[in-house]
Amino acid sequence: MAERGIEITFDTEDFFIATLTRPETIQKEVTDQVTMEVTMEVAMEVARLIPFCLQPVNRQILQEKLGLRNADHFRKAYILPAIKGGWIEMTIPDKPKSRLQKYILTSKGRKWLEENP
Known about the structure:
Largest sheet: 2 strands, antiparallel
Shape: elongated
CATH class of the domain at 36-115: Mainly Alpha
Order of helices and strands: EEHHHEEH
Radius of gyration: 23 Å
Structural class: alpha+beta
Strand content: 5-15%
CATH architecture of the domain at 36-115: Orthogonal Bundle
Number of helices: 4
């Protein structure tokens, strides 16, 4: 029965263990769906951030404009994905924790903004 996703093993005369597994196609569909949802969420957050980075702007101002209070969440969910995606860049890249740090659109970010007003 293992080919159907069910495996039965006898532990003793009185007990058995039934193991149920998902077929690979279902596992792949679930994985693809979760991956797409996560990608869309990040893309939406980055898309909210991009219009405010036409000029160099600091983290506090960006957070205020987006109505967000938690600096750690903002950094992890908005700033880092935008930097890793190549949409924005730091004005002082060699000092990422500088109090003077600001963020500005890259050419990729500017192009996206022109195509998605």
